[in-house]
Amino acid sequence: MSRRQIREQIFLLLFSTEFFSKDELDAQLSLNMQTHEAMGEEDPPFAGELSEEDAAYIEAKVRDISDHLDEIDELINAGAENWKTTRMAKAELAIIRLAVYEMKYEEEIPVSVAINEAVELAKVYGGDKGAAFVNGVLAKLV
Prior knowledge:
single chain, mainly alpha, 7 helices
């Protein structure tokens, strides 16, 4: 899988965690991998072969982001004027959380790449103004 496809898988899992308790993370990770296998390579966002290495990377990132969620949300709440994470649309929030994680904890990912990838995800999964919102929030955190 490409880095973009892996990032999209991480986003989808982060998004799904908004609807389940933290105790259900293992089940959600397992379900995502089963869905990927069942959908096949022709069905985006599951296109591309999911290697064991990719699956392990995705799982590790989702777990690490989940472990740092309070700190990530504090950064977002401090930087997003007039917006708190509790008021944000769930898709945009998951995208912003992923980008903030990459900006803060992934030294090999340039900040500009994290922001650009977040905006691209928001164009696909966010609302009409989702990409602009994501870009605006992340720009204030730089």
